[in-house]
Design goal:
This protein has 375 residues and is α+β, with helices and mostly antiparallel strands. The protein has a domain of 61 residues: Methane Monooxygenase Hydroxylase, Chain G, domain 1 (Up-down Bundle). It contains 12 helices and 7 strands. The chain has a 7-stranded mixed β-sheet, sandwiched between helices. The longest helix is centred in the last third of the chain and has 67 residues. The relative contact order is 0.08.
Amino acid sequence: MSMAGNLRKVGGLRRVGSLRKVARLARRTPKVDLSHPARSPLGSAVVNCVTYREGVRESGAGDLVESVRAVRKSADGFVWLGLHEPSEVEFADIAELFDLHPLAVEDAVHAHQRPKVERYGQTLFAVLKTVCYVDHTELTATSEVVDTGEIMVFLGQDFVITVRHGRHGSLGPVRERIEADAEQLAKGPAAVLHAIADSVVDDYLTVIDEVQADIDDVEAAVFAQNGAKADPGRIYQLKRELLELKRAAVPLSRPIQELSGRPFPAVPPEIQAYFRDVSDHLLRAAEQIAAFDELLNSILQAHLAQVTVAQNEDMRKITAWAAIVAVPTMGCGVYGMNFENMPELHWRFGYPLMMSVIAMICFVVYRGFKRNGWL
């Protein structure tokens, strides 16, 4: 039975065996070309598997185990294996081959991790949160603005394993850019980690620019002539989406600082200088996110103040008109009692005079309220 058949059989046992048991089963079967999804026991989880020597990509798709063995035998080059949302069964033999720590493997498979950098022996495990701006024709109270994902990176002296989660954050453009710079790629797996971190942080800045356009639109709507009628749900939605961006970018500052200053076996000093540049860009992104958060708070407070002012204006108008209406109400109430000895009731000019007095008083009261800005 082929290796693919064995792993399908194990998957049908409802994950009864442990990861180590699956790995032992995989070692007893012939090797398969992992770079070809149609023949790979890892199925569609494998995105790419490439060997690099002196910064140059080797042509052809060889066996993963043989590629790793050749790289370690010659002590030259490294292997870059890219995966997308692998399952535990799919990742088991890879974890065994590269001697990855079970805790790091669990984090890589299940995702939803906080940005971090951890060292397990000679292997470095990094988690980066990716972000993507979701295009929309009009911002509403339910619009999705920021979509997040994750990239996990296992870094060793002779290998890089990237595990991507989410609908975006493809590493294809990153691979193309770094392959075009053979001198940088020749510095080893740490150069790949830097290229990934740099791309992730650049995406933060791109999304920040897009979010700023949405904030500008909301700000213009709030401070327009009828700003009190603006939908406050749009402001709350932007704050929620900005929180997603904040959760991705701000916690990454400490891991990047560790990569730029703390010594790691897989990160040479010449690469740490590049991480300091990434740290500067990340600091700029974090500052802009904090500024946006404060700006949205100010916009929300301004909107609430506008609503309060509009309500006060309405109450003053209602009060003013109630005072004007009270004048004829009082006059009609007095002369509507129909007492026998009310001289004005039998006077020829009593009715016209009373109506004239009421009209005059109403006009005077109206002019007073108008002059004071109540009407």
